Recover the amino acids of this structure.
């Protein structure tokens, strides 16, 4: 027992001697009840500091800042304000960047950023590392909760890139919020988005036909100096699946994506060396914009981006010195449409498809070339699956 008391006495004596043997030479101040009191720190504060004591000038009292939570202090040689925080069970100083109802901190050691809303008794929350000029969705979610009772500040979060200067601005704005809500309230924009999310996606199916006015310029370059012009009227049928998804928000039921397949036949036409017959199978992806969605007569514009599979047959005529050629070729096409929808049940449209070149090998490396442009009338019946 005597040995135990002797060991404790030695430990106590060593601790007292260690504290009083420290050199308190670095001037600074510690906040007590909102008022700063002068004194001296035991050593410089940096990322490698593992212990720091402060001695009051008036009373001589010494406090251990690595064991004292929520102590605000400043060091005369530094411009920063500091505060000791207990993060994950470890108390140490942080740079206090913004102080108030909500406070913004930077860890001296790890350089990580933290935020806290003391008025709502929130914990000190670590923010994700800031990415230059890129909005971080997790940080935006954290800030939305920290600032949840100030609608004016919370509504700004979605408009900003989340970085250090942005968080400083938002935290200062929150601390000066003109009106704090009693509980969580949605901003007008968030209310609108919630309303959009409750609206289902809209689907429809079109069945229709096409009357196409084809313009052909054909030529065998190594034999002919000029192209031969031909015109004919073709016809076709198509089916289209159309969707305006929920996540289009305010563009829902205005902007649609259409996926269509069509089959088109052009009558045979004659050129100098060949009788040409063609049929097309076409797959299109088409964004479509409706201008007056709530009207019975609703004009629209559509852009078509597609893959065109052409079944062709070139049958030599009496003047031809070449062989017959047939097969299938793939090409990419583009077209634009303008039209009107009637009472959500019928559509009429005018299609223009610019010239696209087709090349068919007829002898060795010699080709027969066709430039084909189309103006077409389209009519369709619409089956609507869902709306509101």
């Amino acid at each position: 027992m005597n040995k135990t008391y002797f060991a404790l006495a030695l430990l106590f004596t060593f601790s007292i001697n260690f504290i009083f043997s420290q050199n308190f030479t670095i001037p600074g101040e510690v906040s007590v009840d909102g008022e700063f009191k002068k004194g001296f720190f035991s050593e410089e504060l940096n990322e490698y500091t593992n212990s720091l004591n402060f001695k009051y000038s008036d009373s001589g009292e010494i406090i251990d800042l690595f064991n004292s939570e929520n102590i605000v202090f400043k060091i005369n040689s530094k411009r920063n304000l500091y505060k000791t925080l207990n993060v994950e069970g470890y108390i140490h100083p942080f740079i206090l960047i913004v102080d108030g109802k909500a406070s913004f901190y930077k860890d001296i050691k790890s350089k990580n950023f933290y935020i806290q809303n003391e008025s709502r008794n929130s914990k000190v929350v670590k923010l994700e590392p800031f990415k230059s000029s890129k909005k971080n969705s997790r940080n935006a979610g954290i800030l939305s909760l920290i600032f949840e009772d100030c609608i004016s500040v919370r509504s700004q979060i979605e408009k900003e890139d989340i970085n250090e200067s942005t968080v400083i601005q938002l935290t200062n704005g929150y601390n000066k919020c003109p009106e704090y809500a009693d509980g969580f309230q949605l901003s007008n924009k968030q209310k609108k988005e919630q309303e959009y999310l409750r609206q289902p996606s809209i689907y429809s199916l079109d069945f229709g036909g096409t009357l196409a006015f084809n313009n052909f310029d054909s030529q065998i370059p190594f034999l002919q100096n000029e192209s031969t012009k031909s015109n004919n009227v073709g016809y076709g049928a198509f089916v289209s699946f159309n969707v305006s998804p929920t996540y289009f928000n305010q563009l829902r039921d205005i902007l649609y994506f259409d996926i269509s397949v069509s089959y088109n036949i052009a009558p045979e036409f004659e050129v100098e060396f060949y009788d040409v017959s063609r049929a097309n199978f076409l797959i299109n992806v088409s964004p479509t914009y409706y201008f007056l969605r709530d009207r019975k007569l609703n004009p629209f514009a559509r852009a078509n981006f597609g893959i065109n599979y052409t079944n062709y047959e070139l049958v030599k005529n009496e003047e031809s010195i070449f062989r017959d050629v047939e097969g299938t070729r793939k090409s990419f096409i583009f077209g634009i449409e303008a039209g009107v929808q009637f009472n959500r049940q019928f559509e009429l449209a005018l299609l223009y498809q610019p010239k696209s070149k087709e090349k068919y090998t007829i002898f060795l490396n010699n080709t027969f070339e066709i430039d084909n442009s189309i103006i077409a009338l389209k009519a369709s019946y619409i089956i609507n699956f869902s709306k509101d």
